[in-house]
Design goal:
Blueprint: E1 13-16, H1 18-22, H2 32-45, E2 49-54, H3 74-81, E3 89-95, H4 101-104, E4 115-120, H5 125-137, E5 141-146, H6 154-165, E6 171-176, H7 183-197, E7 203-208, H8 215-224, E8 229-232, H9 246-253, H10 261-274, H11 284-291, H12 297-302, H13 311-319
Helix pairs in contact: 2-10, 6-7, 7-8, 11-13
Amino acid sequence: MTAPWVTYRPEIQVLDATIRDGGLINDHMFEDGFVAAVHGACIEAGVDTMEIGYKASKKVFAPDKHGAWKFCTEDDLRRVLGDNDSELKIAVMADAGKSDWRTDILPKERSIIDIVRVACYIHQIPEAVDMIKDAHDKGYEATCNLMAVSAVREDELDQALEVIREAPCSTVVVVDSFGSLYGEQIKNLVLRYKKALEGTGKEVGIHAHNNQQLAFANSIEAIIHGANRIDATMGGMGRGAGNCAMELLLGFLRNPKFKLRPIYQLLQEHIAPMREKVEWGALSAYIITGQLNQHPRTAIAWRATPERENCLDFYDRVTSDV
């Protein structure tokens, strides 16, 4: 019997999504000092990639109601990161249907961005493929995040993977958008993605939400079955219930290139004070939507009302039509 957990797989790479996913709890209105602190912690900790925000359309999202990291203009990126003179790669996410990607994503030689992560729902696959091709042609590494996979039929998923297989992306990410999946489902999905992408050189990734407090466990399950691109956030910060916590993930991976002390310093100096201003975590409302395989938007809205702690009323409301 072997004990693989005492060693490490060097091909595994870690992406920090704190500013991008965490920004969904405060409309991306982070102070520059916080963004710079996360950037510095990622560098010191040996994290491979920092996803700093979205390339969102200003026609869809009002700039006066969202912070800079909803749009990630080159001026804002350089104001905080300079030329990013480090080995840390910088990623942005572009949502199909919510990004002016043809104009807002500049040619690579004019940007400090390294990776464009194209996110889409199953019905948006055609536009997503065009977005991937556009980013690739402009000189970026492109990836594909197929969102809400827990709500996708198997035949639709297989067809989508056939199409994505031919697209010039480096990674296809299993995204548990609703935090509803269990380990067995994660295993099946990772193996399904790997089989569909076999021979292409594409990697499989995992982006787990913590509605049922399984984000870390599901990330481990994905790793066991061959996922090599893993998302996490500092302190698990993220929309609703949050994400796989970076401090847990790096401790599990055992790779000596990863350093935990910078993460805990960031948690103490920046993440803990942030918890006094904004809320995330596996609270009852998020657990309920996760169990029901529903988008957490209803839970997020409920947590903003005076009845926020009345989990029974929320349960009755969201199950009344189930």
